[in-house]
Amino acid sequence: MAKVLARDLYGPKVAARVPAGWQAPEYRRLSLEPLTPTIGAEVSGVDLGHVDDELADELHWALTEWKVLFFRDQQLDREAHAALVTRDGEVIDHPFAKHTEVYGADQSDTAPGAMRFVKGEKSVGIENFWHHDMTFLARPPMVTALRALEVPPVGGDTLWADMAAAHDCLPEDVCERIADLWAEHDWYDNYGRSMSPELREAVRPEFPAVRHPVVARHPVTGRRVLFVTRAFTQRIIGLSETESDDLLEMLWAQADRSEYQCRFRWQPDSVAIWDNRACQHYAVSDYAPQRRVMERISGDGPPPSH
After folding, report:
1. Is residue 103 part of a domain?
2. What pLDDT is recorded for position 3?
3. How far apart are alpha carbons 59 and 54 in whole angstroms?
4. Span 109-137, average pLDDT
5. Each residue of 36-84: pLDDT tens digit?
6. Number of domains comprising the chain
7. Structural domain range at position 283
8. Torsion over CA of 162, 167, 171 and 176, rounded to 10 degrees?
9. Angle formed at CA 92 by CA 88 and CA 97, multiple of 5 degrees
10. Which sign does the torsion angle of CA 193, 194, 199, 204 carry?
11. Which one of 81, 107, 195, 257 is most buried, counting C-beta atoms within 10 A?
């Protein structure tokens, strides 16, 4: 693969927010304030603790359009939190929460399917890399809702990257090359690093490596989305190790482009809901030794497909 030079990265990176022919509905029950042209909108006029069917429909379409939605001053109990991700699926229990201590919190007092992250006091943030959640599963999460319980005075922001825009702004020849490729995703060198060798081997048969398309079709809009992540994508199937490594490095780097990103500053009782198929996220780790306490619930969806 030809080396990508700095001058090759200059110029506008303008992508559509939604695919051609897809029309977002008129929103009657909520107000949207976009953070960027393609990804991220802050929502006002909504109480997430009381969502009826009509409002749930509008939130679903707003999430499809903007990929990640932000809400302030939300008083959610755990049932209402879980309801945000179960419209089209079921809550996903993280398979390794009970086996690792990377989250810095006892998970026993959380709601079913929820995970609590306590960072900055005795543990450091370890999510400061771009990733889709849990792509090592055959059916990774479709929607994730994260609420802030305690945040530092400054720092601890989260960023999201629009992986549909990232795909559409690739050179045409690259899009053609990757259109039908598959990649292997695995947890072994990620979560497995915090387990003992004996535990790793004990749980390995239950969670083998899985294969997903390098370019997946969004199950609602049909839009092409880059679906590879530094966290879990091991190799591109059918390529030599060198070819796979080079191509993955180029594709992973697409999330680094600021033109595809939005950034959110947390406050207590803020909530973010994101489309895990359409975007990656990055938790900034700049606040230690201050505390940052978050609770997350994810809902499943169909397997990624071309």
Report:
1. yes
2. 59
3. 9
4. 76
5. 999 999 999 999 999 999 999 999 999 999 999 999 999 998 889 989 9
6. 1
7. 25-300
8. 180
9. 165
10. negative
11. 81
d(CA 285, CA 292): 10
Give the containing element (helix H, strand E) for 135. none
Rounded Cα gap, residues 304 and 306, in angstroms:
7
Active site residues: 131, 133, 281, 296
Residue 223 has a pLDDT of 95
Give the single-character DSSP code of 221. T
Helix (H, G, I), strand (E, B) or coil at 93: coil
Q: What is the DSSP letter of 91?
A: B
The amino acid that residue 45 corresponds to is G
User: What whole-number distance in Å separates Cα of residue 285 and Cα of residue 297?
Assistant: 21
Token pair for 51: 């969502």
pLDDT over 80 at 108, yes or no = no
The per-residue pLDDT for range 223-238, each reduced to its tens digit, is 999 999 998 999 999 9
Question: Is residue 1 situated within a structural domain?
Answer: no
Q: Which residue has the tokens 């292997």?
A: 184
